[in-house]
Amino acid sequence: MNPDESSYPPIGDYALIGDCRSAALVSRSGAIEWLCLPRFDSPSVFAAILDRERGGRFSVRPVGDFEVSRRYVGETAVLETTFDTGAGRLRLTDCYPVASEKDKRRELRPENEILRRVECLAGEVEVEVVCDPRLAYGTVTPAFSDRGPLGFWCEDGKEALLLRSEIPVARRAEAPGLAGRERLRAGDVRFLSMAYTDEEPSVIPVFGDVARRKLEETCRWWTDWVEESEYAGPRREAVVRSLLTLKLLTYAPSGAVIAAATSSLPEAIGGSRNWDYRYCWLRDASITLQAFLDLGRRDEANAFFHWMLHSTRLTNPELQVLYDVHGESRLPERELDHLEGYRGSRPVRVGNGAHDQLQLDVYGEVVDAAAQFVRRGGALSRASAKLLAGLGRVVCERWRQPDEGVWEVRSGRRHHTYSKVMCWVALDRLLELSDGGHLEVPVAKLAAARRAIREQVEARGFNEELGSYVSVLDGDDVDASLLLLIRYGYADPESKRTGGTFERIEERLGANGLLYRYRGLDDGLSGGEGAFGIASFWQVDALCRLGRVGEARDRFEALCDLGNDVGLFAEEIDPQTGECLGNFPQAFTHAGLIDAGLTLDAALRGDQESREAKAQDSVAAMEV
Prior knowledge:
The protein is α+β, with helices and mostly antiparallel strands. The protein has 2 domains: 11-226, Beta-galactosidase, Chain A, domain 5 (Distorted Sandwich), CATH 2.70.98.10; 228-623, Glycosyltransferase (Alpha/alpha barrel). 33% of the residues lie in helices and 21% in strands. The chain is built from 16 helices and 30 strands. The protein has a 15-stranded antiparallel beta sheet that branches. A 3-stranded antiparallel beta sheet has the order 27-28-29. A hairpin with a 3-residue loop joins strand 7 (79-84) and strand 8 (88-95). The chain is globular and about 75 Å long. It starts with 13 loop residues before the first strand and ends with a strand.
């Protein structure tokens, strides 16, 4: 292949590298085409994924035609891309250097750095380098100045970029940025490094033994991290890759887990369902926390739980739909009209208008996460217990209200069945925590509200003619969130109502082994979308709980095979082509894969309770 840089690669052609503060998307042709610095939701430095001309990229690849294969180095976040040109073979290794605290104390390092290693494995290969940053979502084209052996420097206000390259580069005469070429022969190795500074002294990256050591330390850091995790069930490689992806999407200073690394990748090519997912959704809290806990990642679970309670405390007693990595909830949505969008999919958005929606289901997500935390040995501080008890009062006051629902529709508020059920979950878990002496709530009041919610859901959230629970009270449509009624303990997996709901969902939402989240509902938006990744994994979880373990295993295997060549999943999948759609990679999809794998593993072992029992034994007491 000889990819034309004016053409957009498929969304699934990207891989992810990062340092748990920011992340870069690397194309199969060796181009970094999305990077925001200094953190996930900062303005972009490279954004060619959203505009081939204005976005900017950092490309390292052979000149001419080549074939590509790639992989992550073992169970790490270090990426290897191998190019075969016919005349030779070239390997590009990309990493965001990370190190232990001990290693950091040994030497001064750039705070934000991308390290790229090029090695000619056989024959001869001419390598081309292009580094063309476009700051502030493509609105600023910085000019590089040549600092000789210290590299090339550019700055804009408080931001500065430094590029050092052992492949000779120079300013381009008729275009912005830097470019260079060099013919490498078997055994030749070259390093490149791009460092970013924001209001800090710049540290010059060092090559030679220091660069090699950084690469080795990064591989070792990720390998050691994975070895502390616990999973030996079906499709270990997919579950571990999903866990690594969750870690890459974790903002280490706060413990927050963002929904995805990108903004505005479309749910349908050329459509307008293009959202900024570089924030943290409370909707994801329970499944994400359980993924960390069940795989033995106590530190990440503790940090995430701490971030969740910190963020909700900032808006107490109300819960917002989403927050940024430090708990900010005011995230106004705006459009970037100067960017053409991925394959012409406009508008390109930053910020997210869902931040001011009412989604009552989030109360259940947060309190269920707290209950899971406590079940596995965690302890609540007095302030945390008081906060959670206050959420119970809000649920008692608001559960009868309509809301926008879990899918964040923009067609107005309705009485969503799932939202009511999650209010039931919130009260149920608070009563559980109260029974265990972890907090104090007005038991009689919460129990009465819990009973009233169930009465309403059973009377109006179930359609007798359809034989199924339905999306909205008194309605006749279904959506994928209804699969979670079993998972959260609201619905009995052996009941006729539960079985009927599962059948209607498969019948109405299924497509080539995948599930749409809904179809035919007025969500206030134009255009279509793909099958929803996590919904298909919810289906695996539900099959296990319904006792259909063989079907669940086959479905799980097939779904895992739909990841891209390095095991990453987007928010959605095209049921006809299997192509990735929406923001990429999507934490929620990967958390769903982990959850389904763990449930399937427990079911295959014939012990549905083994997950919680194992976690209870292995997790030491944690306090927030």
